[in-house]
Write a sequence for this structure.
């Protein structure tokens, strides 16, 4: 009897599910570190009255101005270059090369230890639902306070929008580096229940986060919108970014960059009222 019980127990052991791995993710940044991401943004609209598409080259530069116990102070420089329509061509290392600059935006922001970004100027850093993001924040994912992994999703709150639900989707290497694949979904309440009087939307971010550094190695973001009384998406945009370089500036060069960034930010703030009301400039 005892032998039979032992044999039965041993047979059960291999079938027991192992606990899925979990990671405590924290952005690890150094003062003077610059992260350079290159990628693209493609937008397609297919409606009853209009059909068009636009393509942009996208570059995002993140410079760590200061590091503190509670996080870091960053400058975010986003450059968009619209591509002329035409036959597809292989992308250069800098995917915006050779195109006309459409937008350049500089923002100063604070990053906490959970990957949450806030603008120092109070302007929203939320990704636009239509058109390319003029300030790109995809390098950072808002993590929970506990470990990430298994079947434990977490929610992130964005002002004026539904909850943003994240989950871990396994591990995948990016350029030979081990990464945790994270998927975040945010959608309007009526996305799964089409209505005849309201536009519905859904956003899905897939981010490959470096397990060692806690920052994105690759980002893919898809936003879909559906016009009222339609069952299929009528507007779709896809943004992709990949980390191209990470280097640390020596202190003198960092200080030069910091002063230049602060001057540019001061100039932009002084010019903002004139941009809103051009006639005041005389």
């Amino acid at each position: 009897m005892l032998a039979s019980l032992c044999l039965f127990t041993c047979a059960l052991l291999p079938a027991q599910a192992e606990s899925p791995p979990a990671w405590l993710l924290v952005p690890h940044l150094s003062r003077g570190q610059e992260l350079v991401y290159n990628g693209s943004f493609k937008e397609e609209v297919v409606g009853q009255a209009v059909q068009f598409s636009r393509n942009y080259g996208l570059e995002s530069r993140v410079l760590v101005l200061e590091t503190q116990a509670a996080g870091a102070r960053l400058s975010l420089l986003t450059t968009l270059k619209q591509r002329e329509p035409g036959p597809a061509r292989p992308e250069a290392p800098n995917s915006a090369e050779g195109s006309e600059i459409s937008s350049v935006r500089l923002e100063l922001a604070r990053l906490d230890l959970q990957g949450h970004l806030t603008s120092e100027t109070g302007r929203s850093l939320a990704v636009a639902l239509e058109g390319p993001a003029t300030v790109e924040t995809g390098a950072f994912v808002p993590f929970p306070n506990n470990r990430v992994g298994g079947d434990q999703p977490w929610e992130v709150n964005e002002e004026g929008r539904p909850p943003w639900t994240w989950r871990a989707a396994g591990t995948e290497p990016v350029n030979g580096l081990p990464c945790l694949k994270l998927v975040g979904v945010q959608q309007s309440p009526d996305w799964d229940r089409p209505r005849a009087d309201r536009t519905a939307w859904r956003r899905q971010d897939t981010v490959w986060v470096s397990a060692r550094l806690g920052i994105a190695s690759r980002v893919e973001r898809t936003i879909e919108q559906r016009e009222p009384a339609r069952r299929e998406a009528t507007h779709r945009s896809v943004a992709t970014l990949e980390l191209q370089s990470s280097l640390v500036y020596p202190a003198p060069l960092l200080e030069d960059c910091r002063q230049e960034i602060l001057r540019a930010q001061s100039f932009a703030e002084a010019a903002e009222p004139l941009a809103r009301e051009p006639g005041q400039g005389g």
